[in-house]
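2024-03-11 09:14:02 DEBUG pipeline.ingest accepted 1 chain
2024-03-11 09:14:02 DEBUG pipeline.ingest length=205
2024-03-11 09:14:03 DEBUG pipeline.predict start
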Amino acid sequence: MKEKSVIIFLQIVFFCSLLNSCRQAIEEQELIYYPEGTSWKEIMTDPFYPQFYKIFQFTVKGDTIIKGNNFQKVFVNGKLQPVFYLSERGDKIYYYDNSLSQVLLAYDFKWEIGMPISVFCVEEQKFHIVDSIREIHKIRLEDYKMYEYIKFPDHYYIKTIGYINQPLFPYLMHYEKIGYNINILNFERNRCEIYRDHTFDSYWE
């Protein structure tokens, strides 16, 4: 009787473990990095002229088909036409705008040590490898959850969001003058603010 109880207990533990693994797999599969309604603000500043700044608000709204794949439309400052498009395929985020001849891989959120990291080159209209992941850190953001991030001398990259010390996606880089800086002011997903750069609070509140 005792042995039977132990066997039943072990079966229950195994079943619960299997159920939990399945639930985690489903959650990971359903995770959407930039769902409908996602929005963020970017600020353009001139370090040599502190009085100058310009704020751009991007919003994900609606979808379309491009080159046979489903893409989300991204609008800026209430414009009637989308300025670029995003496509999520697993942990990979693909980017496209009308100035490009092909769809580009912008982010891969499946991180591991040694993985190459790329940034966009405006002149060549493509992403270039600039470094590799050497260490992964963690930080608590505005929603009080912990997020992984990686940091390089010129780049700060938060998992599930993207780069925060440059345009989140290449669109604004086409309009960025030499010497200007662009930073992410805030990022909201599912009606929840996840990230905010409080050093710029006085610019837009």
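2024-03-11 09:14:41 DEBUG pipeline.report The chain has two domains: 1-30, 33-204.
2024-03-11 09:14:41 DEBUG pipeline.predict end
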